[in-house]
Amino acid sequence: MNNRFFSSMALRNIKSNKQLYIPYLLSSTSIITMFFLMVSLMTNKFVQERSATLPYLFMIGVVVIGLFSVIFVLYTNSFLIKRRKKEIGLYGILGLEKKHVAKILFFETLFSSLLSIVAGLLAGLLFGRLVFMLLNFMLRMPNDIAYSTSLLSSGATAALFVLIFGITYLYNVSQFTFANPIKLLKGKQEGEKEPKGSLILFILALFFLGWGYWISLTIPDPLAAIEQFFLAVLLVIIGTYLLFISGSIFILKALKNNKRIYYRPGAFISISGMLYRMKQNAVGLANICILASMVIIAVSTTVTIYLGSEETLENQFPYEHNVNLFGDMDNIEEMNTRFFEVQDEVIALTEESGLDVAEMESYRSESLFGNLADGRFVFEQSSVGADFPVLMMAIPLEDFNGMTGENYTLEDDEALFYHSTNTYTKGELAVGNKSYKLTEIENEFSADMALSESIAMVVPDVSHLLDIRDDFMEEFPESDYITIDAEIGWDAEGEADQKESLVNRLNSEYNGDSGSFSLYQSRENQREEWYSINGGFLFLGIFLGLLFTIGTLLITYFKQVSEGFDDRGKFQIMQKVGLDEEMIKDSTRSQLVWMFLLPIVIATIHVSFAYPIVRKLLMIFGVTNDMTWLMTFIAVVITFAAIYWMIYRVTSRVYYGIVK
What we know:
Elements: H1 3-16, H2 18-42, H3 45-50, H4 53-83, H5 85-93, H6 98-139, H7 151-177, H8 181-186, H9 199-218, H10 222-257, H11 259-262, H12 265-276, H13 278-307, H14 309-316, E1 321-326, H15 332-352, E2 356-373, E3 376-379, E4 390-396, H16 397-404, E5 414-419, E6 428-431, E7 434-440, E8 454-459, H17 463-475, E9 484-493, H18 496-510, E10 518-522, H19 523-576, H20 581-620, H21 626-659
Parallel strand pairs: 3-6, 4-8, 5-7
Antiparallel strand pairs: 1-9, 1-10, 2-3, 2-4, 2-9, 5-8, 6-7
Helix pairs in contact: 1-6, 2-4, 2-6, 2-7, 2-19, 4-7, 4-10, 4-13, 6-7, 6-19, 9-10, 9-20, 10-12, 10-13, 10-20, 12-20, 13-19, 13-20, 13-21, 14-19, 19-21, 20-21
Family: Belongs to the ABC-4 integral membrane protein family.
Subcellular location: Cell membrane
Keywords: Cell membrane, Membrane, Transmembrane, Transmembrane helix, Transport
């Protein structure tokens, strides 16, 4: 017998089992499409240009979807091979050797995997382009966002799924290599042993979930959140699978042991049915739960970023007009002179444009990196290192009083002190060769100080900034990153055309100033670009939400089909002994409601515990309003639950059709 014979048998087997293979091929194609789209987004030019954080987050998404793909394909394949055990056992009875059956299964796997991979890649290209076109049309972005992919993305996708389908082939071969043909002939008719609830697995589930939740709840700052996010996600995914596999069995056995609940016709059928299939059922529920969590986080965070655009602008540009001066520490007198001159200049330019200065704030500052140890700020040469150093900003008292309207006074060895983490409790701090007695204050500085561990010190006068610089240069003579910088911000009242004229004059005057390097930024000029960037995040969030929702639909559909085939024979027997159709629906409704509610409830709990780490990540994008995220989160959960309810209604009809 040659390979042509075995390949033709494999094709005939696929055709004759099309009722099983069509859902399997659709599901495999869909998961390949999902992974391919995630890889394409990670390398997409638009994603690369939006933020340095986005490619990293998409890389996490690729890893998560990759792990999910392995579990999902093995899960769907196990259902397929279980339904075909009788057929495979018949081959042995008819005289085919095990190596011949292995060849048939090889060609079946080859044909189905090639079809799935090619269809998945083509669907990814088509779906990606169509959805990008649709979202560009719906969101009316200033510039269309292009969907792009590469041979690398296609190759990585094909390589992963060739490996996954190779694993399924080895699993399928193992199912009959070590089995007796007579036993295989019984196939699915052979009763399953009641699954045992593992206390160890249940404890491990709680441990992994608790660990992931603890990381989220105790994350110190946004930069640490970027580092820890992947670990937290991975731990929660592992904990979710273990919880559904072990925890659900504990609950069902508790219900079974409750005689008042269990010994009723509907409860008896549904509880015993779910208990005996819980291993396979649990994986499907866990898959849905993970996808639901992804939908809620992806959509709620990106919608929050978009809705928080004005807040972000306010945080980034507290005033309508902003001039930054970057000075030379060796020329501190010139910097001071320039600082006061520019304030007079911008007031004059504003009034010449027919506008009134409504409010103005200006201050000089010095920034450097280091670490707090034994009552001393230990200098670091740069911000690059294994650990994130502490950022210190020093401001002279005169400027701080002008910023806040306060009237603080300081002795030469005193300083006002703010620490973003409130963990430094000593009353003194040595910086360089000088020690300061500290008076604690609230954050009157920048919202960016919350992005990483930061401290702010208000020193008696500007000469202390020069002293700190000299002490630093004594330790690191080759470093030149420390300068005294200045920020001047003000609002102007008047007509729109007058404001536009002022913006043009300030642009020409201070962008590229020859005296000392300066930069002018207008909040209004930044608004369009900022909305475009945040609109891009919204675009990606909706795209990912749609992608994961479609994945949820297909997994739910396959789950209902597989359970329907498992239940059909049992309910046909029950009908013969007098169980009517209405009783069948009543007894299965509780199973379907369980499947519907449990993933949504657990996903909502996951996202609720993820709030602290997500909040830290949102701070990187300038969003600090908790209420915006909370309201968006509630709206997304309700919307997704409604969509999932519709999916449940449609797929439950498929289940009832198969059972009947």
